[in-house]
Amino acid sequence: MNKLMSAAAVAAAVAAGAVLPGMPAAQAAGYPDKPVTMIVPFVPGGSSDITARSVTPGLTKILGQTFVVENKPGANSAIGAQALARSTPDGYTMMVGSIGTFAINEALYKNLSYNPSKDFEYLTQAVRNPNVLVAAPTFPASTVAELVEYAKKNPGKVSYASSGTGSSDHLSAVLFRQRTQSTGVDVPYRGGGAAIADLIGGQVNVSFQNLGAVQTHIKAGKLKALAITGDARAADLPDVPTLAEAGIKDMVVYSWQGFAVPKGTPAPIVQQLSKALQTALRDPQTEKTLQGLGFEVVANTPQQFTAFQQAEVKRWKDVIQKANIQLE
Name one Pfam family in it (predicted). Predict the structure, then answer.
């Protein structure tokens, strides 16, 4: 008997639901055979929403089905995350979440309605971008060393603006003060835009803001950039040192976005979705678009993302507990 199957025989076998050699069971079963819902637990226009809408055309092309973005904002992403955790684990509901959704919230909230470490199967860390330590143009310090010196000479007087309690920019400030043994006052806003506006106006002193949100203000001279929280200098701001170069060790911080499905989703579907996402993210035009918005594409494996997520949970749990921060 000829070991090679004809194209017609392959098509017939797939249609019948047979599992062919080298073919994941999920593919043999015809997944996906209907539209897939992609939850974004934030309002439209944010980083998670941008990430979701950037990859859906590629996913549709690769997998042959429509991916419908559904925004479910509220409770610092807990509403959308809870919806994912309670959905049927069949590959037809997935979510794009942030560092807050998948790592920070676990330690931050006393009564969280979902568990990031137990309720999800992780597909891929999609993108990441560093924060930038920026200062108001009128603030006396123009370097990290000057900021630390000023903060120590004026204990409790340096104001740190953030987009909200528990955000990556807020916790970056908390970690910075822990690393430098300095003090300051946290000033949380309802979103980064308001924090940046008051920073430019001099109502607050400093902030750790997302690179993409402040780089135009830095180039225009409206904000002073003191350091980058990434592991290397930003290509768009080559003269701004990393925190490590500025003398602050063990403080590499990235804001990031990733994809997940409910716990219990079959492994072949997890692998199929992950590979499709990695391919869509690495599409030259998609990657170029994301880079233009300040994102660095990661596109790693489920195993790599899961290990990273667990490390991030531990890291931020330590920071949060040391600072005695907790929300209901």
Answer: TctC
Distance CA 189, CA 145 (A): 26
Task: Kindly tell me the sign of the dihedral angle through the C-alpha atoms of 185, 112, 278, 276.
Answer: negative
Please enumerate in sequence order all residues whose Cβ is within 8 A of that of 95, keeping only pairs 6 or more positions apart, or say none.
Answer: 38, 39, 40, 41, 80, 81, 84, 101, 120, 259, 260, 261
Q: Are strands 206-210 and 120-135 parallel, antiparallel or unpaired?
A: antiparallel
Q: Are 91 and 261 within 8 A, CB to CB?
A: yes
Give the number of other CB atoms < 10 A from CB of residue 230: 20
Give the number of C-alpha atoms closer than 13 A to the C-alpha of residue 195, restricted to the C-beta side. Answer: 27
Over residues 45-99, the pLDDT tens digits come to 889 999 999 999 999 999 999 999 999 999 889 999 999 999 999 999 999 999 9
Angle at 162 between CA 161 and CA 167, to 5 degrees: 160
Give per-residue pLDDT as tens, 252-269. Answer: 999 999 999 999 999 999
